[in-house]
């Protein structure tokens, strides 16, 4: 079996809900990894978004059941691809010092997870260089190191500093004939965030899949009608 790494760059804000009922100020929280607490997209959500993308393209629809599986007439056929959860690599945070409006931030453990996945599934580690930076801060936290990945500077924070940064919360309004009936609050992953997931399969099936999604914009998560979840896709092979 072979594998590829698929990276997502959020063009718009994204909300992948965790399905829990909340009784605090945030009605809908985003899904988080149960171990790290970082935002994530579970494998079923990733697979569902990809399947919908293939289903919406007449040239790709013929590959949909083969790659992702089929369920019909009482018989379930497994797909030829195994799709893992999408892990967060980095997220943007508003700058409080420096020349940029925001900085991408992460932790060493998030970078290590991405590097480890590349090593395990691709047999090689990505090219990541780390450099010292000065006169930069995000939400009052000084930034002193930045990793360069695919031309993007991703600033490395201590775990406790990163966890102190709250995800944005957006107020949503339910209207009934133009009249506000219900104001509710939804947590989001901000645009410019970066995720990555592993896809495993035969070289032939991965080639079909990679050619179909590379460079495309695919919607992940909910609230598609208001433009949430649009992500630019890139593919890295062995």
Describe, in plain words, how this protein is organized in 3D.
This protein has 238 residues and is α+β, with helices and mostly antiparallel strands. The protein is 22% helix and 39% strand. A hairpin with a 2-residue loop joins β13 (169-176) and β14 (179-187). The longest helix has 15 residues, at 108-122.
What are the main properties of this structure?
238 residues; alpha+beta; two-stranded antiparallel ribbon; 17 strands
**DSSP summary: helix tally:** 5
Radius of gyration: 19 Å
The averaged pLDDT comes out at: 87
Low-pLDDT windows of residues: none
Structural class: alpha+beta
Which percent bin holds the helix content?
Answer: 10-25%
Shape: globular
Distance between the termini: 12 Å
Sheet with most strands = 13 strands, mixed
| SSE sequence, one letter per element | EEHHEEEEEHEEEEEHEEEHEE
Oligomer: single chain
Measured by DSSP, the beta-strand proportion falls in 35-45%
For the secondary structure, the number of strands is 17
